[in-house]
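Run: sequence + S-adenosylmethionine -> complex structure.
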Amino acid sequence: MILFGSSGRNIMKFENPKTAPGTDPVDAWYRYYAGYSAAFVAKALKEVAPRARIVLDPWNGTGTTTVVAASNKIGAIGFDINPAMVVVARARLLGQGVWASIAPLSADIVVHANARNIEDDPLRFWFVDRSAANIRALQASVHRLLVDAGTTTYPIFDCVSSMSTLAAFFYTALFRTVRLLLAPAAGSNPTWWKRLDENERLNPGRKIIFDTFIHSTMELAEGLHRANFSLAVQTRVDVGDCRQLLSIADQSIDTVITSPPYCTRIDYGISTLPELAVLGAHEEVIKKLRNTMVGTPTITGEDGAEESWGRKAAAFLSDVAQHDSKASGGYYSKYFRQYYSGMHASLRELRRVTRPGGAVVLVVQDNYYKELHNDTPGILREMAKRNGFATTARFNFPVARTMASLNPRARTSRDQASAVESVLVLR
Ligand SMILES: C[S@@+](CC[C@H](N)C(=O)[O-])C[C@H]1O[C@@H](n2cnc3c(N)ncnc32)[C@H](O)[C@@H]1O
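>> structure
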């Protein structure tokens, strides 16, 4: 379906971000992240910035924006606070030139994989010690062959910034391997991973683990973008906080295409626990990571000056605070304030880095808290104006199945099938 937006002079066309065709396998592997399809990004670039030379995604997730921009020979910068997502987004930038070496390298990785027992290995959350040691063997082998020959660095959590696209490719295949092996333990909510009891831990053998890895490398290679990325075009995918894009100069970005975390209490830290475990992240690290995420359901103490967020935000926050249901004045008020405070800081930063007249395209959903309409797109639109964006346009699409409906903890009294997904274009 194509909808037309009326922002006065500019008539633009957008397709539904979720259903526009053109997906890579990673879109399916991490579908709770996929704010939109590759085709949506291509279309958005054509509509809002046909001459863009540098595109930014400050919530890059699996890197749909960066891979589409780079395949169109447009400079691409992507940040995500979650190192696991940075690895996936880098993997998608693997140039066609090295594809022929994927099969022999996979075989090499397996041949050099020796079981590695690590006392407090987070993979032991779900796997018996022997299985965890064999998965860890693959990780150490990828690392030795492609990241750091001298050592078997562990944990890897802090060194993703120096990882090549080739190393990131094999790490992503390993992420997929762990997800496939974990399938028997997956609950009804795919964004929530709980630790298994000692006697429930999974016990896949060495052969299954290694075969699954080889299969995953092939599957990922098959579905990568058929592009030979130009070295002349800048691409940068790294760990970074959308509220402080310190390495980006003022007004240096032509356009932003992104999907911020939705205000639905999806925990993006917990939803990537399997990937974070491969990277060796322990509970303390994960706790810290979750607390830096915009939209985290954990309470971090982040708050801001509500007066500068606009009338819609003020009205919604006041209704939540006064709602007579349990925890509305406590946890939920804090949660919503925290979300909008984070989004306010992010929009301010996006205004700073985007050149005057440059477009910021945000894909974002509304939802309900009890019977109260949390019109996130409408609230962000007002916030954007207060942050110096001169015009805003909104395009609405009905969504059949929302991110919130996947999370029983976030379910609200409204039938989630009626949610609306909006494309906001700010300039
Ligand atoms: C909806 S997802 C992005 C979807 C993405 N457009 C895609 O297609 O995969 C939101 C992302 O924001 C990231 N995120 C959360 N807080 C962040 C922060 N403070 N700075 C940067 N990224 C953050 C999460 O890790 C998550 O990957």
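>> summary
The chain has two domains: 2-95+230-301+346-426, 96-223. The first helix runs from residue 25 to 29.
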